[in-house]
Each structure stands twice: as C-alpha cells, then as structure tokens.
Amino acid sequence: MKVYNLTQAHIQRIGDISRTKLILSLLDIKKLGNSPYILVVKSTIENSIKLSIYPLKKKEIIKITFSTLTFTDDIFYIISKILQNYQIIHTSGVLLIDKQLYYECYLNLGLKEAKAIGLEASLNKIKNIFKQIKIEEIGLK
Q1: Is 135 exposed, middle or buried, given 0-12, 13-18 or 19+ CB atoms closer than 10 A?
Q2: What is the reported pLDDT for 109?
Q3: What is the per-residue pLDDT for 31?
Q4: Angle formed at CA 112 by CA 78 and CA 63, multiple of 5 degrees
Q5: Do 86 and 131 meet the contact criterion of CB atoms below 8 Å apart?
Q6: CA distance 41 to 51
Q7: 20 to 30 A Cα–Cα from 135, which one of 50, 90, 92, 125?
Q8: Other CB atoms within 10 Å distance of the CB of residue 29
Q9: DSSP state of 3
Q10: Three-class SS of residue 106?
Q11: Which helix (H) or strand (E) holds 68?
C-alpha cells in the first residue's frame, strides 16, 4: 500500500518571519490545465494562516457571506438546497467571531452572468432568517 504525503511542512525561527518568502509550485495542482487564473483564499484564525489555491477559467467569481446568531440543521438544509445549483469552489465552514456565526462560500459564477440573477432571487427569499447575507464579486487584483 502506498503512503501519500497529504501536506508539506517545515519549521523555522520566528525571527526569520520578516524574510520569509513562500515558494509554491502551481505545477502540483493536477487540474491547472489551461486555467489562466487562480483563486487564492487566505484564512486567518487565532493561531494559524491557511492558504487554499484553486485554478479558475474566470477572472470574476461570487463570494457569499452568511451571518447569524445560530446555525441549525434547517438553516444548513436551506443553504445547501440553494447552493446545490451552483459550482462551489471553496467554503469556510462555520466560524464563531464575536458571538456571531459566519459561513462563507465562493461560487464559480460572476455577478454579470444570467444564473446570478436566480441566485440573488433565491437568497432574497431567505434573507429574513439571517442577520446578513453579503454577496460580492471577487476579481483580479
């Protein structure tokens, strides 16, 4: 049985952080193919930073942030029923920040695409069960 390396790691001194350069080989992404763009998602929590990199064929995608005081199974069911019609690139999972729960997802869809109108209509129907639903377009820097 072959043992796979799921992650790579190294240890370095805190004093060397200011000189640290991250060297990432995008060639390790098997489905990079002819994707002219990448989505880089940085997640910073109390004691770590996580980077996720995804190949993209589009230069603009949608990010949705849901915030509420409680996430129930029913709420997750409603969100999943809406989002199942769209290609999800990345999700944050549920995070608790200052007594509020947040959930983010990135969709392989631009705001100018026809399918985005249906998404916005679906989200408008459920906006009353959340404190806030934020839709934004993420594009080239």
Answers
A1: middle
A2: 95
A3: 67
A4: 45
A5: no
A6: 6
A7: 50
A8: 14
A9: P
A10: strand
A11: strand 60-68
Domain ranges of the chain: 14-139
For residues 101 and 75, the answer to whether their CB atoms sit within 8 Å is: no
CATH number corresponding to 14-139: 3.30.70.260
Token readout for 102 is: 């947040």
> Strand 132-139 vs strand 37-45: parallel, antiparallel, or unpaired?
unpaired
Residue position matching structure tokens 């990010």 = 63
Q: Give SS3 for 131.
A: coil
Render the burial of 30-49: b for 16+ CB within 10 Å, e for the rest.
eeeeeeeeebebeeeeeeee
Query: What is the tally of helices (H) and strands (E) in the chain?
Result: 2, 6
* The pLDDT of residue 38 is above 70: yes
- Residue 50: CB atoms within 10 Å: 9
Q: What is the mean pLDDT of the chain?
A: 85
Q: What is the pLDDT of residue 6?
A: 59
